[in-house]
TrEMBL record:
It comes from Streptomyces rugosispiralis. PROSITE patterns: TAT. Transmembrane segments: none annotated. Signal peptide: none annotated. The lineage of its organism: Bacteria, Bacillati, Actinomycetota, Actinomycetes, Kitasatosporales. It comes from the Bacteria. This is Carbohydrate-binding protein. InterPro entries: 6-hairpin_glycosidase_sf (IPR008928), 6hp_glycosidase-like_sf (IPR012341), TAT_signal (IPR006311). Gene3D superfamilies: 1.50.10.10.
Length: 763
């Protein structure tokens, strides 16, 4: 039986058996897209070369390269840097179904697998740095593996395109039950230099596929070791987080944080603000000084005002995490100049920020005022830390005046027009601008690009008025007005979704009812809108079924893919949902934890998280369903810890340590306390999503034999691989396959001895 009808199961048991902004106007990208997506920033993309404008676009390359190769699901990749050609393998036969993934879940080695002539063909491509003749290059190493699971021999020619240099000669005939691997190499980038390309012989002599694969994985694991480490109930989020960090290093040129490769291949001032903050929050401080020193907000393809207003923010985060007052002091004049521009730009009615074109037309946009408030908050923190009391006082006075002006304008607009949401413009309802357009995500611009609601709170901003009190109402109103879209997307520019989708959940961390929205939104992206493995276009007008399974994927895109500002926002909201540090030294743990992660046996961990003064800490949350335990590790935060999981609100019976506020849902641990167990008044009550289509799931991940029940217990389900082997499966992934719009859906067997008792559950 391949489809399981659910049986009742208690919410907290038994345990499941283990199985093995840029708001944009962009050039048109993808065959399915006609015209322009509604947005704000004009795309300054390099001319399309080879197939770089294909919807299914990823990057393979090396840390800090200049022109990474653009990879596609057919195993081909586009080479730039003057070559302007596409490397491909003719063995690809446009199958009805294929799988496309990162090797081992997150490495920048892209793996395409499909069936051909009763064989399984796998194409793997990755980049590695090669030094030959005294010059540095990026070489792409490719392996085409043919596994013959037939009873007769097959001759399968990889048919490599010209320029791919063979590294071995294994012949094209594959005997029954055997496999052969054909290895190739080609140089794709010169790190921005113009020296000659290496000879074929020198590349062939530079080492084997296996040796370079080992070098590649060692390098990226080392780089990943510099940032906070995550272990989550949804391992896809962990892999997306890792891949996002790696893609950012490939997309950057040297240490310059470009946004994309096949679009936005430059440094943009307001993007850079957010990307730097994410790096510092994760703990990637290796190039922080050079990146901050080089950051000139005027040096941007478009001189965005908000890139100036928020300029102090990454400096404040750097200062907080490192305590490096000397470096910040040496750059204070630059920070001061940009902060004081905020007062100069308060030329709007009643003293709000000036009119900009940030949301498709000139307007006095709420998001601009929030960004200016965020900049002032960060500047106040810096001035205070550096002992510049007069500047700190100026920042506070200017902040108070601007917040008062914004609150007055918004309150008047809301009351006059009887609005139940925070309008995009401080002086007008959404009906007359882009925020009122069908499925235009700009209605949520404040939630991400404003930064003030959550990040302002972390830096001690005094918050009042509609922007603070109407967050939940605005999330609710905006989601309700979307047309024909599933939960946990905000629309596009216009259309299905965006690469900022998870980031739009950031302000939810400051709300009462949408605190886990960022995590849910990130899971939505992974399940429903990838354009390549853990890559997303900035704008995603449409998504649907392709021959890449499982899941639905982008069928059109605008901007770039991957889009590193969007990726940075997703990584930051994910980490902040688990561990976030306030400027007073207190660390908030679990603020955005999905209630589904409180199920019995669930474990959530964030370790090596940077905190003030160059320290690192960890937090691990485990649950029995009715009791939730927090264990802290590493350095101890000076301000203690506030444990505040959404499922705690009004639901705490007791705690073994700390001060309990059940109404607020918080347990406050003083500095030095390392653990507490919170007993809930009532365990979460999960709802059944339904049964599982195990046969369909197995086939969607390339196991053409479907599903097999190989025993009498709940753990005896297996997928049947093309060669007939029975392999383990993830029941959680099977639930995601069956219920792609159910956020954090998970599996559970009501009876470990009953294989038919599996069901999918959500909160």
């Amino acid at each position: 039986m391949s489809r399981i009808t659910p049986s009742p199961v208690p919410a907290d048991g038994p345990s499941r058996p283990r199985t093995l902004r840029r708001r944009l106007l962009s050039a048109v990208i993808g065959l399915a897209l006609v015209g322009f997506a509604a947005g704000v920033q004009t795309l300054q993309a390099a001319p399309a070369r080879a197939g770089t404008t294909q919807v299914d676009s990823a990057v393979i390359g090396w840390d800090g390269d200049k022109d990474a190769a653009i990879a596609h699901r057919d195993g081909s990749f586009d080479i730039r840097d003057g070559k302007n050609t596409t490397a491909r393998f003719g063995i690809y036969n446009n199958p009805a179904s294929l799988q496309w993934s990162n090797a081992d879940g997150y490495y920048p080695a892209l793996v395409t697998s499909f069936q051909r002539d009763n064989t399984t063909v796998t194409i793997t491509n990755f980049g590695d740095k090669v030094t030959t003749g005294g010059n540095d290059y990026v070489a792409v190493y490719s392996r085409v593996t043919v596994d013959n699971h037939d009873t007769v021999a097959h001759t399968e020619d990889p048919a490599p395109s010209s320029g791919l240099i063979p590294l071995n000669d294994v012949g094209n005939t594959v005997q029954p039950g055997q496999s052969v691997s054909h290895d190739y190499v080609i140089a794709v980038d010169r790190f921005g230099a113009s020296y000659p390309w290496p000879s074929d012989s020198s590349l062939a002599a530079a080492g084997s596929y296996d040796s370079h694969y080992a070098h590649m994985t060692n390098h990226w694991d080392g780089r990943l070791g510099e940032i906070a480490q995550l272990d989550l109930p949804d391992p896809r989020l962990v892999n997306a987080y890792k891949a996002g960090m790696i893609y950012g290093e490939i997309v950057k040129d040297g240490t310059a944080l470009n946004v994309g490769e096949n679009g936005y291949d430059q440094v943009w001032n307001h993007d850079l603000v957010g990307m730097l903050v994410n790096r510092f929050t994760q703990g990637d401080l290796s190039d922080a000084k050079s990146q901050l020193t080089r950051f000139d907000p005027h040096n941007s393809p478009v001189d965005y005002d908000d890139g100036h207003w928020t300029f102090p923010w990454p400096w404040a985060v750097y200062l907080q995490k490192t305590g490096d007052t000397a470096f910040v002091q040496s750059n204070f004049n630059r920070i001061q100049t940009e902060a004081h521009r905020i007062q100069t730009d308060r030329t709007g009615p009643g003293g709000v920020m000036k009119s900009t074109y940030d949301i498709d037309s000139d307007g006095y946009w709420t998001v601009d005022n929030a960004e200016a408030l965020m900049g002032l908050t960060a500047y106040h923190y810096i001035a205070t830390k550096l002992g510049k009391s007069s500047e700190a006082n100026w920042a506070q006075r200017t902040y108070n005046a601007l917040l008062s002006a914004v609150n007055t304008a918004l309150t008047n607009t809301i009351n006059t027009n009887h609005l139940s949401y925070i309008p995009c413009a401080v002086d007008a309802p959404n009906d007359g601008n882009a925020c009122g357009q069908k499925n235009n995500a700009n209605w949520a611009a404040l939630f991400l690009f404003g930064r003030w609601n959550w990040d302002g709170y972390l830096f001690g901003a005094q918050q009042s008025g509609p922007m603070a009190t109407m967050l939940d109402a605005t999330y609710k109103d905006g989601f309700a007005k979307l047309s024909g879209l599933p939960p946990h997307t905000y629309g596009g520019y216009t259309g299905f979704s965006t690469g900022y989708n998870a980031g739009y959940g950031e302000a939810g961390l400051a709300s009462a009812d949408h605190r886990a929205e960022g995590v849910y939104d990130y899971q939505f992206m992974i399940t429903n809108s990838q354009s390549a493995p853990f890559s997303w276009w900035e704008g995603i007008p449409t998504a649907g079924s392709t021959n890449w399974s499982p899941g639905t994927h982008a069928t059109a895109g605008t901007g770039s893919s991957p889009h590193m500002w969007g990726q940075a926002n997703a990584s930051k909201v994910l980490l902040d949902s688990l561990v976030a540090e306030k400027s007073d030294g207190q660390v908030i743990v679990g603020r955005g934890l999905p209630t589904e992660w409180l199920r019995s046996g669930a474990r959530t961990s964030a370790t090596d998280v940077p905190i003030a003064g160059g320290h690192r800490m960890g937090a691990t949350i485990t649950s029995t369903g009715s009791a939730v335990t927090l264990r802290l590790s590493g350095d101890r935060p000076a301000g203690g810890v506030s444990f505040q999981v959404p499922g705690f609100a009004g639901n705490i019976a007791s705690a073994t340590a700390g001060t309990v506020n059940s109404a607020a849902g918080t347990v406050t641990l003083p500095a030095g306390t390392t653990s507490t167990t919170v007993t809930l008044t009532k365990a979460p009550a999960f709802q059944s999503s339904g049964g599982l289509d195990l046969n369909g799931y197995c086939k969607s991940i390339g196991n053409t034999g479907g599903v097999s029940l190989d025993g009498t217990t709940a753990s005896d389900w297996h997928c049947v691989a093309p060669d007939g082997d029975h392999v383990s499966m993830s029941m959680d992934d099977a639930c995601t396959y069956g219920y792609p719009y159910a956020a954090s859906v998970f599996s559970r067997a009501a009876d470990a001895d009953d294989p038919q008792s599996w069901a999918c559950w959500h909160f």
